[in-house]
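ok new one. same drill as before - structure tokens go in, u give me an amino acid for every spot. 128 of them this time. try not to just spam alanines like last time pls lmao
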């Protein structure tokens, strides 16, 4: 059962495929916003997965994130997810990303708990 207060911290080193590189050779590759959001979402999923029934998982439904500062490639980032609200199958998280210097991102993420078989059946029906 998912409850308010469940939380998780995950540490990940910022890799090249997590970075923007389009600002030119004088700018060191740094953590891209879509990558930061991806790791925040994964942290949220991993936080509640052990609390779900067999055959259930969760999918992201809403993201409200601020990217506050750059993190250079190679630096470790700690992603934190904390459940702040549960409304039926909808779960709302407070999320944060911090490197060794500062908070680099924060916001809110919502996920919806799904029955995997039912979800798969709906996709098959939609896509044939």
């Amino acid at each position: 059962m998912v409850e308010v207060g469940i939380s998780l911290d995950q540490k990940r080193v910022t890799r090249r495929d997590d970075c923007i590189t389009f600002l030119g050779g004088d700018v060191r590759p740094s953590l891209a916003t879509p990558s930061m959001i991806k790791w925040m979402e994964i942290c949220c999923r991993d936080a509640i997965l052990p609390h779900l029934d067999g055959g259930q998982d969760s999918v992201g439904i809403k993201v409200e994130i601020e990217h506050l500062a750059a993190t250079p490639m190679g630096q470790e980032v700690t992603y934190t997810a904390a459940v702040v609200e549960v409304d039926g199958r909808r779960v709302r998280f407070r999320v944060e990303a911090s490197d060794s210097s500062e908070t680099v991102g924060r916001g809110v993420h919502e996920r919806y708990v799904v029955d995997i078989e039912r979800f798969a059946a709906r996709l098959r029906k939609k896509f044939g």
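The mean pLDDT is 96. and btw The longest helix spans residues 33-48.
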